[in-house]
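Fold this sequence, please.
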Amino acid sequence: MINFNGSLIDDDNIKYLAENRAFKYGDGVFETIKVHNGKPCFVEDHYFRLMSSLRILRMEIPMYFTYEYFSEQLIKTIESKDKVTRIRFAVYRKNGGLYLPTDNNIDYIVEAFSVGQYITKERYEVELYTDNYINSGILSTIKSTNRILNIVANIYIEENGYDNGLLVNENKNIVEAINSNIFIVKGTSIITPPVSDGCIKGIARKNIINLLTKDAKYSIEERSISPFELKKADEIFLTNTIMGIQPITNYRKKEYKTEVSMEVSRKYNIFL
């Protein structure tokens, strides 16, 4: 079942019209929400990020689209399908117009997926992807439905036998991985790129920063990361809401430890 504007509809009956602006122009945003034991995780964080994204894209937010309404739609969709593990909540501008829309009001589709839970990989190798760059700036920080750079990068990474790719911005700084934020560990310092460099405002990223800020054992810093720093790091780990924390074990000829990454992962999983 798919939740279309609050009504549950059989998958076969939903029609993606040719005029759909998310299809034509990538004029939409989405949230991917982890479901654990039948309950959506970090709902408040996802809601406020979605609201921020809609405002940035100048979409009209209906008065009824409250936190309570958002939560109700998640639960309704989860209960429509067995063993749901994730939700995709996509919001897009209503049909009409070319680059200039004729209507700034929204439609939304909520999909439930019953795929297996992510299992942390013991060996995880990454490589830089530099054929295309992420542009630093506010539009790169939202989860828009235009993910063509990520798609092309993922194809390149799969063709070359890696597990993930690291993306850079126009200043050649590391921004994030294809599907996740990135943290590097040097001693007791943990560093992640700032949002101003163009990284997604990740929900897991936010909660891990908050967790580490309260942990006297480590210092957390948001600053630009040069590719040259990757080989100097003791550890590197990736984060998103579905996989939680995935340690990187190999980058080119460098092998990394995973002790800090797994310690942070155990602390983060308490939130679920």
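The chain has two domains: 2-113, 125-269. The chain has a mean pLDDT of 94.
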